[in-house]
From TrEMBL:
Compartments it resides in: Membrane
Protein name: Zinc metalloprotease
UniProt organism field: Candidatus Nomurabacteria bacterium GW2011_GWF2_43_24
Requisite cofactors: Zn(2+)
Transmembrane regions: 6-25, 105-128, 302-322, 349-370
Enzyme class: hydrolase
InterPro entries: PDZ, PDZ_6, PDZ_sf, Pept_M50_Zn, Peptidase_M50
Amino acid sequence: MSILIFIIILLVLVLVHEFGHFFTAKRFGIRVDEFGFGFPPKLFGFKKGETEYSLNLLPLGGFVKIFGENFNEADFVEVGFLEKDSTSKGEYSRSFASKAKWKQALVLFAGVFANFLLAWLLFSFGFMSGLPTSVGNEVAGYKLQDVNLVVISVVPQSPAENAGLQVGDKIVFLTGNDNSVTDINPSTLKSFILSHGNKEINIGYARGKNKEVDIVKITPVASATDGKPEIGISMDQIGTAKLPFFTALWEGMKLNWSITKGTAVGFYTLIADNISGKGSFTSVSGPVGIVSIVGDAYEFGFVYLLSFTALISINLAIINLLPFPALDGGRLFFLLIEKIKGSRINPKVANTANMVGFGLLIFLMLVITYHDVIKLL
């Protein structure tokens, strides 16, 4: 089920991204030869109008084949266009290369914009349906519903992990030494653990969409920093924020912008650390790692899955903006160079750079996938 959901999410994200390119190119009168999901070899396709729609074997992305994207004027003359007859001139006028630089830039940026737009709509729909929100971050004037104390991280090899507690578990009650606590919040949980020292306590919790309460027995251990008893979790009070339509749209936009800024900073830090030799793949996930996260999000509920899809959409947009060959950002960078130098980059140089860049991206994806598999094993 997780793999199927991941494929559906990937299909939606790719279709939205490529539709941004497709729609903008069509609006500017540029001919689009193919709209493809996945990368070749081609499995099957059909043609509607002048555009072929194809499904390809490698479901790692997609593409829109825009007429004349990699041609310059000399290439058009060589293949028979730009002759004196009006038909050939008409074909050239419908090419990507014949358009003004600002139009080319908008076509390239449109895919990224579509992913940001999708994330905004998903967050907004989440707020309308009821989006999980931390206590203290609620929208002014709107009270959170169904507030629970939720485990947000579990320390490896801690008593909590050994007992089976997981991220996302809702702590419902505490018992031990003939006393119990049902008014659960971070303060009462900490006080309860401190008052019991290294004696065994019982924690009642609910997981995912399951309403049944399970109980685990945990014996706290002394902290390595201050010697106080702890079980090895971080927690937060999380409720559901349900907002009316226009408020949800505004808050969705604000959340989208906030997460976009945070993600961009995270990418910058990751790249800087790798350049300085401090980076690692522990915090990076590829398709295999994302599948497991999709499964967790699905278990928590549909709104969690929507939020996670929005996060992937933002990540996809920012990655595509990187000035790296074969990505939209790389093509935009080439356009900037052409604008500054006042002439086109040799198409052979640009095409070679894009091919090398694409090969490096595939290699990086394979390396990340390998590390995902290792982490699972």
